[in-house]
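Course assignment 3, question 2. Fill in each field.
Student: A.L.
Task: Predict the tertiary structure for the chain below.
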Amino acid sequence: MVDVRRDAEPDGPTTSGSGQGATGPADTGAVRDTRAHVRATALRLFRERGYAATTMRLVAQEAGVATGNAYYHFASKDHLVEELYRDVNDEHARRAAAVLADGGDLTARLRGVLHAGLDAFAPYHAFGAEFVTVAIRPASAASPFSPASRAAREVSERLFRDVVAGARPAVPAGLRDELPELLWLAQLGLLLFWVHDGSPDQRRTRRLVDGAAPLLGRLVQLARLPVARGVVDDLLRLVREARA
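Answer field:
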C-alpha cells in the first residue's frame, strides 16, 4: 500500500520550530556540516532551476535530509535566497578587489566595481525576475532592506565605501559619508534594469554603466563648486529624512 501521508506532506515546516535557534540538535560539527550541505544544495538548485522550481522539499531531497531538517537550518526558502545574495555579494567583492587595488579616480573605480557586480550576478540572469519578485516583498527575508539581509547588505555597502574612500582626487568631504549608500541604491536600480535586459550578454546594461559612471564622476566633482553646494546639501538632507 502506498504511504499517502508522505505524498501529502506540505512544503512547510514539519517540526515544532523553524530556523536556527529552534529546538533541535546541538550545534555540533555534524550539524554545521549539514547546514552547509543544505545551503550549497539550495544555491545549486537556484542556479539550475530558479526560485519557483526550487522548493524546500526538493532541497531536502537533493541534500539527502528530511524536510524538517532543512527547515531547522533555514526557516523559509526566502532565507535561502538571502544566502544566495550573500554569496553573490561576496563574489562581487572578490572580483572588485583588483579594481580597487589599482587606485584611480571615482569614475574608473565605480565603473570597474559595477561591472564586477554584473559579472557576479551573471549566472542568475535567466531567473533574475523571479528573485527580484521575492526581494521586493517588504516582509521577505530576501529583501535587501530586511534584518536578515544585513550581512549581505554590509558587504555591498563596504565595497562602495572603499570606492569612495580610495578615489583620487578625493571625493568632497560633504559627500563622503552619504555617497556610498547612494551608490548601493543606484546599483539596486541598475540590477533591476539588468534583469529586464534581453540584449546579448546584457550589453545594454554594460553600456549604461560605461555612460553613467563618468557622468556621476563629473557631478561629484561639480559638488566642489560653491554654486552647487546648496543643491548638494538639499539632496543630502532629503536622503537623511528618507532614512529616518
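Instructor remarks: The two ends are 61 Å apart (CA to CA). Confidence is low (pLDDT under 50) at residues 1-11, 14-25.
Grade: pending
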